[in-house]
Amino acid sequence: MSARHRLRSLLTLVLLNGLIPIRTQPMYLVSLLGSPLAYLFFIDVISRGTLLAYGVTGGLVLMMLSAGTSLQSDLTHYKHDLKFQDVVVASPVEAPVYVGGMALSELVYSLPAASVFFALFVVNGFATLESCVVLVGVLLLVFGFATALAFTLATYFQDVRETYMYSPLLSTLLTVIPPVYYPLSDLPRWAQIAARFSPTTYAAGLVQGSVGLAPLSLDGGILDWGILGAAAAGLFVVAGVKARWKEP
Amino acid sequence: MPSALSASHLGKVYPHASGDAAALDDLSLEVPTGRTYGLIGRNGAGKTTFVRIASTQLAPSSGRVEILGLEAGRDDRAIRLRIACVPQESRPLYFLRVEEVVYLYLKLRGIAAVEARRRTREILDELSLADVRTRLVSRLSGGQRRRTMCAMVLASDAEILFLDEPTTGLDPIARREVWQAIRRTSREHRTILLTTHYLDEVEALSSRLALLEKGRLVLEGTPADLRARVRFPYRVTVQGPIPRAELDSYGRVSEIEGGFLVFTKEAAARELARRALEVGARLSMGPVSLEDVFLEVVGRSIEEEPAADDGEEAWA
Q1: 3-class secondary structure, B284
Q2: Nearest CA in chain B to A3
Q3: What is the per-residue pLDDT across B207-230, written as a single tens digit (0 to 9) for each?
């Protein structure tokens, strides 16, 4: 398959799983906006506005994480209920094209949320060249990490209902409990150590640091970038090894 | 004629299968190029497992499969350029329109937009789906959904098509429309591997067929070959004054409504016809059906579910 054909297949998957479902059910666009906005509202009210900025940066991280992890439901549904993956396997479409196309299609759903939160990011005066570069880099790594996690998990699910319990669990473990919506320094010492096991802690730390909400770590964030990148790369390796294209 | 597909000593034991139950057991067969090849067997006989292995979706436990001279497992990428599959129980994505299911599948395969549109139009006409081409899949009947799946792969450029029970749930008219499309595809010198429960379907479409039971190849050949290999290749129905005891001397006899069904050999069938004329009995005679062959070889109807003590799961 030529590079042109691969690109055509990839874009077809984005159309098929991203754009066309929205035509049928536009509420998909709102669903990814709901949770981050609710958290933002809650944090703003509780903190009397002092943590609003954390709510905005945290919302961006949560949005990208949700976009990536929601892929597990689509993959499981397409594989087990519709046998769509079997149709694709027995065709010229290669596994990385399917994975890439399906992952990119999830980004379509996050566009409204991304627009709203980026507008808030700008309105709050956070948008500088440096912070925008950091934001884009961090969000891409979070999305990569989340999609790799989704592919790995989807391999083990036999029914789409199994994914229903993991989506909220992942969201809680990766964005609500870790310091994504508040400063890491607010946590007690033991909890700060525990939070370091979540890649989203580093993602939020980098974004918060770039907009001046929290001081960057002594090494200027290099360690945070390294850990976040390693987590995404590591999960991609796991997904590559564990995710099944051809059944054993 | 070269083989489009060649399986050699193929075996499959699923991980986590109960006991040592093999879904496929030392299966060897050759599918000729440019023909429709039928695969028949009861649920759990191994048909779907074979299709999944041959269409590179599943790895075998032992043996090898060659597709168009390429080895499955080693040359999967090259094989996938030349095959298409309608898996058993597959359904089109419910939020697509009928024409989008076909068109987008062709685009996924790398077919250019203009050509994909032309092929989509033609296949929807052929399978009487043109009237519902802009209808959402979620609003189609079960039969229309299945036909849409068939349309998708029949419109493709694949050299080998795997159709795993493609007409399940279709009404007789829709089935015959799919048959027409399969025949047309076969005339294009493309190979079709068809699994089905419908023995009339496999007889109408296949130039050769294989009968699987418990993962093993039981019979293989043309429909005429299969009939010739059973002990009693003729079926005679008799209604009239010939007693059961006399009929028993001609072959295997079973009672049917209003008379008897006798499975017998050609010479005995002629003799029985003569005898029926003498005594004024009504008689009809012909070669055994594939259903009869199946019943004699397997000992049960194709519709009968595997018994619990078969030691085999209804795979996939």
Answers
A1: strand
A2: B110
A3: 999 999 999 999 999 988 888 888
- Contact between A163 and A157 under an 8 Å Cβ cutoff? The reply is yes
B221: left (phi over 0), alpha (psi -120 to 50) or beta: left
Q: Give CA–CA dist B148/A87, Å, rounded.
A: 13
Instruction: With beta carbons less than 8 A apart as the criterion, state whether B46 and B315 touch.
Output: yes
The answer as to whether A138 is a domain residue is yes
Tell me the pLDDT tens digit for each residue of B72-104. Answer: 999 999 999 999 999 998 999 999 999 999 999
Mean pLDDT over the full length of chain B: 90
- Compute the Cα dihedral for B255, B257, B259, B260 and give only its sign: negative
Structure tokens given for B99: 């024409």
Q: Is the ipTM of this complex over 0.90?
A: no
Least confident of A2-11, A118-127, A171-180, B54-63: A171-180
Non-local (6+) Cβ contacts of A226 within 8 A are none
Interface test with A, best of B95, B98, B139, B193 (most A CBs within 10 A): B95
Q: How many domains does chain A have?
A: 1
Q: Report d(CA A91, CA A94) in Å as an integer.
A: 8
Q: Which of B58, B92, B108 sits opposite A93 (nearest CB)?
A: B108
At A178, which amino acid appears?
Answer: P
- Residue B194 in this model has a pLDDT that exceeds 50: yes
Decide if A10 is inside a domain.
Answer: yes
Q: Which domain holds residue A58?
A: 3-242
Q: Does B96 touch chain A (CB under 8 A)?
A: yes
pTM: 0.87
Say which of A9, A82, A248 has its CB closest to residue B93. A82
**Under a CB-based contact definition with an 8 Å cutoff, are residues B213 and B307 in contact?**
no
Find the largest Cα–Cα distance for chain A.
57
Instruction: Give mean pLDDT, residues B274-280.
Output: 92
A42: DSSP letter: H
Residue type, B24: L
